[in-house]
Structures are given as structure tokens and as C-alpha cells.
Specification:
- By secondary structure, the protein is an all-alpha fold.
- It is built from 33 helices and two strands.
- Helix content is 75%, strand content 1%.
- It has a two-stranded antiparallel ribbon.
- The longest helix has 33 residues.
- The protein starts with a helix and ends with a helix.
Length: 743
């Protein structure tokens, strides 16, 4: 009798809502265990109706997640606000919490699916990020896709929360919930098929809002009376009984059942929290608490892995004769899937921690060595021109062959920037520049080989993969990678260009330097004509022409400062580019190519001259408008090389790789490709920075690393070279003595 009174006082006595925060991890684990039980394929006989009912109601565990998640986000966002950080930091933290887990968990499953149910590359990318759920509802990681929308909305929700004003929060909760209920019914009226595909997420928005608006009361530990708890338990029981008696929905409306999950989930959370708190000191329950704690810390990973692992186990284990001979084979298969899920969740969490540690060890991206806003704007515009060129090429538009002048602009920019530098150690400089290009290129090549192996495996050969990595061969659909050997060659030539210019051309007048450049171009043309080398001289002239501009006019020039000599020459080049481009347009429009002598030889140089004109026009436009200082341009400038590497596969990729026919409307496909390009460029940038990092023992923060000047580096190199030079001089002396002896 005494124990019953104690249990009654424990369950119905006054309690602080802060208990939900204290027992949050265990409650999340309990909800996860219920969801896993709901997903299990175990058959329960009619002799166990209560157990069957509990299993059938397991999806309420998701609503328990949502209430706890909404309450937890309030504390996180409030802490950031107190630190003076806003929604950007919140989004960054949420991204790194969910993105690694989603990709690591869904990538193997959907890669496996490609061999059993092939789909397009665009669908695959949306699948591994869980976003395909919002297209047709077919994604086992739907909760991650739902969470992304909730996280995106949360800063607005937080702005409408008023701590200490419960009535206003109730009104705000009803307003938010009412808006989304109305929104879901608009979707149901407009497209009922789509509504039922995503209904399991649409009907759960109010549950999340409830967790958000009750969070201030949980945070300050508001005490609720025993009568309130008793009424909550009774209401939850009545609703559960009503749902059990109305499989089609409360009152015949299925959505009412979904909305009833909110008070039921809250009642179960309060009841479970009281029981867990009361049993916290029981030593016999410590393994249970440890297990629930583990599940609570790995909820997202377990949720994403369990259904996939269970599906694979059911497909490959159940047909085995040894399993079929066991009594209740389905129980053993589900148990094996559960153990594999827990092990996989631990492994995924370890990988997530590795990724996060790597991110924290990375130093912030260093700004460009040349902070000229005009150059940044030109580079961003050139990247946009190249992407537009390949999109137009997909649609067969002749304008594409005009917009690819962006490549020439890229080469001119590189020449201008490197012409402003002084290279004191040529071999070290070449090594650094090649590493800067080849590391992201090789990372992209590995990803491209994987994509081709899955979606266009007829093009994947050992010889082709080796050629791709060595930048001497390209898969169909990766033709834009011709740029890599060109830029490697130009970096190899740059120290020679510096020496030639400083020794022979720096003191010569502009006209004579121009003549020397034309002579060099002619020599290169003859070398290619006779098959000695295979690099288009019209593209090489863009680099070394830009190099001379940078060394002669841009070096020492301050941003916004005028240079009359530079303006004179570039205005002339722009005028010549305009005239020759107009002539080119006239000839090509009227199909007069055959009538113009040597047109095929002249056309590439017209294109290169147009590159100089476009470069100068964009550079001057950036100076007039100030667009080069905008954040969007700076981001495009920073990731321009990565965007160049990644965009082509989404537009002109072979087989099922291109993403230009996913939607019926071309504008939607363009936006999708731009989104994929931006995301993949950032991911490639991150992976390349991670690949460039030194071993773990060398990880140091910027403040711990001593400053090393160029003189100190030269002294170290001299010390390393001293023994070698001494041996060489000794060998020379011995050879000289031997020659004298012979003579």
C-alpha cells in the first residue's frame, strides 16, 4: 500500500517542466527505441494484442523527437544570441550537425540502389542529401529533409517567442500551427497525390511548434500541478483509445489522428521523465539507462540506418537455409539488423567527429594574394560566362561559342596576377602552384570516376582513369578539363617569362614588347603546325600577354589608381576586339567562312583578342560600379576554380550524369544545376583543403606557428644545399685535375 502511494505521488505530484531537459538524452533514446520497434518486421500474433498495439503506435516516437528538438533549439539559439551571434552561426552549427550524418548514412544505401533500380544523377544527389523527399516522398531519410526545413524556419520562430509571457506564446503557437495547417490543406486541395506523399511531414509541423513555444517554460523550470498532470494523462489515454478504435482517423479525418499525437507525445514524455527520474538511483536499471543514453546520443544515425540495414538483412539473410531452420527466423534477422544498426551508428558518429575535428583544425580561408576588387569581379564574371556557355552548348545555341571567351579571360587574369609577383625560388614556386591546381583536380577526378562507374560505367577503363589522373586523357562529358594541362604548362613557363622580361624587355618601349610577343606567338604557331607541340598558341598568348600587362602596368598600381599607358593600350585592344568581333559575326552569320582566306587560322586569334576586350570592359565596369566588393562576387571569386571543375558534369555529363532534363521547365533545370555546382564547389574546396593538411602531429593554430620570413626560408634552403654544392665543387676540381693530368 505504501509503494502504491509512493508511485501515485511520483506520477501525479507537482513537477518542474525542467525535468524534460534533465532527462532529454534518455527520453530521446526511449523515443528512438519505440521508433525502431515500429519499423521492425516482426510478426506479432493475436495472443499479444497490447504488444501489437504498442508497436503500431510507435510512430508517436517521432513526435516525441520533435517536441524535444524544438525545446533544445531554443536553448541553443538563445546561447548564440547572448554571445552576439545570429542566425548565420546557428545555420552553420545545424549544418555540421546534420549534413555529415545524412551523407554518410544515405550514400551507401542509394549507391547500392543504383545497381538494383537505376535513376538519374540528379535524383541520386537529391537522394543522398534526403531532399528528394520533398519531390515525391520516397526517401527513407525523410526526417532529415524535414529537419532541414524546421532549422530554416527556426530563427523566425525564435523571434516570435517571448520568455515569461506564456499567453502570448500560446497565441503565437496557435498562429504558427494554424498557418501550416491551412498551408497543408491548400496543398491537399491543389495536388492531393503530392499531399499524401509528404503528409507524414506536413502534419507534424504543429508538434514541432509546440516544442518551440513550450521551451521557455522548460528553460525556467516552471512547475505544473498534479491535477494538470493527471488531466494530461487521462487526455492522452482517451486519445490513444480513440485512435485505436478509429483506424481511419478520429472522426473519419486522418489528419486529426496526426494532430492528436502532439498531446499524446507530451503526456508520454512527462510520464516517462517522471519514471526515469524516480528510478535514477536503481542500480539494476543502470544498463537500461546506459543503453537509452547511447540511443539518445545517436538518434539521427540510428534513424537513418535502421530501415536500410533491416531491408538488406531481410533480403539476404532470410532466404538462407540456416536462418529458415530457426524458430521465429524473423526475430533473429531483426535482432541482427538492430546490432548492425547500433554498430553502424557508432561508426558514423566517429566519422562525424573526425570530419568536425578536421574542420576545426583548418585555418580560415586566406584571402586572395591580390585583393583587387576589379580582378575579383572579372574572375566571377568569367566563371558565370563559362557555365552559361556550357548550358547553351547543351541546348545547341551558337552563342555558346562566343561565351566560352571566359576561358581566355581566366588565362589573362592568371597572367596579370602572376606578372605582379617576383619569384625568387622557381622550383618551389612551381611545386606550390602545381599542388594548388592538382590537389582539387585529383579530388574531383576521384569523385568523377566514382560517378561514371555508377552512372556511365561503359566509359570507365583502367587506361582512361590513369589518363584522367595524369591530365592527359578525358572521359566523354569532361572535355573542359583540357584547361588543366594548359595551366600546368603556363605555371612551368612563368619563371622563364619573368627572367626573359626582366633581362631583355623591361627597359624596352611598349611597341617593341608588342612585336616580341607577336614573334613569340608566331614561333609557337609554327611549332604546333609542324607537330612539335600541341598547345593552342591563341590561348597561350592570353597568359603571357596578361603576364606582360601585370608586370609592366599593374605591378605597384593601387586599387582605383589610373594608369594612362595601361588605359591607352587596353582601349586600343578593346576597340580592335569590337571591330574584329563584329567582322566575325558578319562572316559567320552569312556563312562566308569559305570565302575568307585562312579563316580557320585567324578565328582563334579574334577570339583571344575578344578575351582582352572583355577583360578590360569588365575590369572598368567593376571600378565604376563597385560590384567587386560585394559578398556574392567575393564568394564566386574564391570558388571559381572549383566551380569550373565541377559544373560541366552536371550539364554535359555522359550517360545519366547530366541534370538538364530533370524538370520539364528549363529554368528549373538551370537553377538545379547552379545549386549543384555551388554545393559541389564548396565540398570540393573543403575536401581539397583537408587533403592539403599536414599529418596530425603538425596541426597547429595560426597563433602557435612562428612567422617564417622569406629570408629565413632561403637560409634553410642554403643550409640544405651547402653539402650538395660542396660535393659538386669537389667533383669539378677532381675532374679538372684529371683533365690537366691527361693533357
Amino acid at each position: 500500500m505504501k509503494d502504491l502511494k509512493s508511485l501515485r505521488s511520483t506520477l501525479t505530484g507537482p513537477v518542474s517542466l525542467g525535468i524534460l531537459s534533465r532527462e532529454r538524452s534518455l527520453l530521446m533514446g526511449m523515443a528512438m527505441a519505440w521508433v525502431v520497434f515500429f519499423h521492425m518486421t516482426i510478426w506479432i500474433s493475436g495472443d499479444w494484442p497490447v504488444l501489437s498495439f504498442i508497436k503500431g503506435m510507435g510512430n508517436i516516437g517521432v513526435d516525441m523527437f520533435l517536441i524535444l528538438s524544438g525545446a533544445g533549439l531554443y536553448h541553443s539559439y538563445q546561447t548564440l544570441s547572448e554571445q552576439g551571434l545570429g542566425f548565420k552561426e546557428f545555420y552553420r552549427k545545424r549544418f555540421w550537425r546534420i549534413a555529415p550524418a545524412v551523407v554518410i548514412c544515405l550514400l551507401p544505401w542509394f549507391t547500392y540502389q543504383q545497381f538494383t533500380a537505376p535513376s538519374s544523377f540528379a535524383r541520386y544527389l537529391m537522394d543522398i542529401t534526403s531532399l528528394s523527399f520533398w519531390r515525391d516522398g520516397r526517401n527513407p531519410g525523410w526526417y532529415a529533409a524535414f529537419s532541414i526545413v524546421l532549422y530554416a524556419l527556426y530563427p523566425l520562430i525564435f523571434a516570435s517567442i517571448r520568455p515569461g509571457d506564456a499567453r502570448r506564446n500560446i497565441s503565437a503557437f496557435l498562429a504558427w500551427g494554424g498557418v501550416f495547417v491551412l498551408f497543408s490543406y491548400i496543398i491537399k486541395w491543389y495536388d492531393p497525390v503530392y499531399y499524401w506523399q509528404i503528409e507524414l511531414a506536413l502534419s507534424r509541423f504543429p508538434v514541432f511548434f509546440f516544442g518551440c513555444f513550450i521551451a521557455p517554460e522548460i528553460e525556467r523550470g516552471r512547475e505544473v500541478s498534479g491535477w494538470f498532470l493527471l488531466a494530461l494523462y487521462v487526455a492522452s489515454g482517451v486519445l490513444i483509445a480513440w485512435m485505436a478504435g478509429s483506424p481511419e482517423g478520429i472522426g473519419g479525418v486522418y489528419e486529426f489522428t496526426r494532430y492528436a499525437y502532439c498531446p499524446v507525445a507530451f503526456g508520454l514524455l512527462m510520464l516517462s521523465a517522471r519514471l526515469l527520474s524516480a528510478a535514477s538511483g536503481a542500480s539494476a536499471l543502470r544498463p537500461v539507462r546506459a543503453g537509452l543514453g547511447f540511443a539518445g546520443q545517436h538518434t539521427l544515425e540510428i534513424y537513418l540506418l535502421h530501415t536500410q540495414i533491416l531491408s538488406v538483412c531481410s533480403r539476404f539473410l532470410l532466404p538462407l537455409p540456416g536462418i529458415q531452420g530457426l524458430k521465429r527466423a524473423d526475430v533473429w534477422v531483426n535482432l541482427a539488423a538492430l546490432l548492425l544498426t547500433l554498430a553502424g551508428a557508432g561508426a558514423v558518429k566517429a566519422l562525424e567527429r573526425t570530419v568536425l575535428r578536421l574542420k576545426e583544425r583548418m585555418e580560415p580561408d586566406a584571402p586572395r594574394e591580390n585583393p583587387d576588387a576589379g580582378i575579383a569581379f572579372v574572375r566571377a564574371a568569367a566563371a558565370a560566362m563559362i557555365i552559361a556557355c556550357h548550358m547553351l552548348q547543351f541546348y545547341g545555341n551558337a552563342l555558346a561559342y562566343w561565351l566560352n571567351v571566359g576561358v581566355e579571360v581566366f588565362l589573362i587574369i592568371s597572367g596579370v596576377l602572376y606578372g605582379q609577383r617576383d619569384i625568387s625560388a622557381p622550383f618551389g614556386w612551381i611545386r606550390r602552384q602545381w599542388r594548388k591546381v592538382l590537389v582539387p583536380y585529383w579530388v574531383f577526378c576521384l569523385a568523377a570516376v566514382f560517378a561514371y562507374a555508377v552512372f556511365a560505367n561503359e566509359y570507365v577503363t583502367l587506361y582512361g582513369c590513369a589518363g584522367l589522373l595524369l591530365a592527359c586523357k578525358r572521359f566523354p562529358g569532361l572535355g573542359h578539363l583540357w584547361f588543366i594541362p594548359y595551366i600546368l604548362l603556363l605555371y612551368l613557363m612563368t619563371p622563364l617569362l619573368q627572367w626573359t622580361y626582366d633581362e631583355y624587355l623591361s627597359e624596352r618601349p611598349d611597341r617593341e614588347v608588342a612585336v616580341w610577343l607577336m614573334l613569340l606567338t608566331g614561333v609557337l604557331w609554327l611549332l604546333r603546325y609542324y607537330g612539335i607541340e600541341d598547345f593552342a598558341e591563341n590561348r597561350l598568348v592570353c597568359y603571357y600577354g596578361g603576364y606582360v600587362l601585370g608586370r609592366r602596368f599593374f605591378r605597384g598600381k593601387k586599387e582605383g589608381e589610373r594608369n594612362p599607358a595601361l588605359e591607352k593600350w587596353m582601349n586600343r585592344a578593346g576597340a580592335a576586339a569590337l571591330v574584329t568581333a563584329a567582322a566575325r559575326g558578319f562572316i559567320q552569320y552569312h556563312a562566308l567562312e569559305e570565302a575568307v582566306p585562312y579563316w580557320s587560322y585567324v578565328l582563334p586569334f579574334i577570339h583571344s583578342l575578344m578575351g582582352f576586350g572583355v577583360f578590360w570592359a569588365l575590369y572598368r565596369a567593376a571600378g565604376w560600379s563597385g560590384l567587386g566588393k560585394s559578398r556574392c562576387v567575393r564568394l564566386a571569386d574564391r570558388y571559381s576554380f572549383e566551380m569550373y571543375l565541377t559544373h560541366h558534369i552536371f550539364i554535359l555529363g555522359a550517360g545519366r550524369l547530366h541534370c538538364m532534363e530533370v524538370f520539364s521547365h528549363p529554368a528549373c533545370n538551370v537553377l538545379l544545376v547552379l545549386a549543384f555546382t555551388a554545393a559541389s564547389a564548396w565540398l570540393l574546396h573543403f575536401a581539397a583543403r583537408a587533403a592539403k593538411r599536414p599529418p596530425e602531429r603538425n596541426f597547429k593554430t595560426r597563433s602557435e606557428t612562428p612567422e617564417r620570413t622569406q629570408e629565413q626560408a632561403q637560409e634553410r634552403r642554403a643550409k640544405k644545399r651547402a653539402p650538395v654544392l660542396e660535393k659538386m665543387s669537389c667533383a669539378v676540381r677532381q675532374a679538372h685535375a684529371f683533365i690537366q693530368y691527361l693533357s
